[in-house]
Design goal:
Helices cover about 60% and strands about 5% of the residues. With about 170 residues, it is mostly helical.
């Protein structure tokens, strides 16, 4: 059943929407993905992999239209690694690149890639409470010495308790 559905879907995708509404094509894509996820003989990883291939094929056939935009959103949200999402974004059309939802997701993916374990921290700048001058976190850090950075808010009761408790002991 899935194979038959995929063959029909491929025929529609390759036709380039000739005589077929975009809504119908999206319904067929959604139906095909739903059919894959309903297959109880497949593991979750197999379902994701099959759906990913199907969506990549659909995206390749519709990179410059609204179908491609919807498929792109699904791919980068559920079926691609951060690196793959960035690679797809680097080659996408202006229609996709200018979409606000896509911009937000890609910004999130970029930020996520900067904060994975093993990456060097992002230097932050604040005001030195003693001098009132701007100062970067890196100016406080010594080489090969661990440093505890505790971010808190003055309006937050648990934060204020932490300040009164163990942080005052450290000073």
């Amino acid at each position: 059943m899935i194979r038959c559905l995929l063959v029909m879907l491929a025929a529609v995708l390759l036709s380039g929407c000739k005589g077929t509404s975009q809504k119908l094509i999206m319904e067929e894509i959604d139906g095909a993905v739903s059919e894959i996820f309903a297959d109880t003989t497949l593991t979750r990883d197999e379902k994701v992999a099959k759906s990913r291939v199907l969506l990549l094929d659909a995206y390749a056939a519709h990179k410059t239209d609204s179908i491609g935009l919807q498929v792109f959103k699904s791919l980068i949200s559920e079926f691609c690694s951060s690196q793959e999402a960035l690679e797809l974004y680097a080659e996408c059309s202006d229609l996709i690149r200018d979409n606000e939802t896509v911009k937000v997701k890609i910004a999130s993916v970029k930020n996520e890639s900067l904060t994975v374990p093993g990456k060097t921290y992002l230097d932050v700048e604040g005001i030195d409470p003693l001098t009132g001058e701007p100062r970067k976190l890196s100016s406080y850090i010594g080489r090969d010495k661990p440093m505890l950075v505790d971010f808190w808010a003055s309006w937050c009761p648990p934060c204020r308790e932490a300040i009164r408790g163990h942080l005052l002991e450290l000073s």
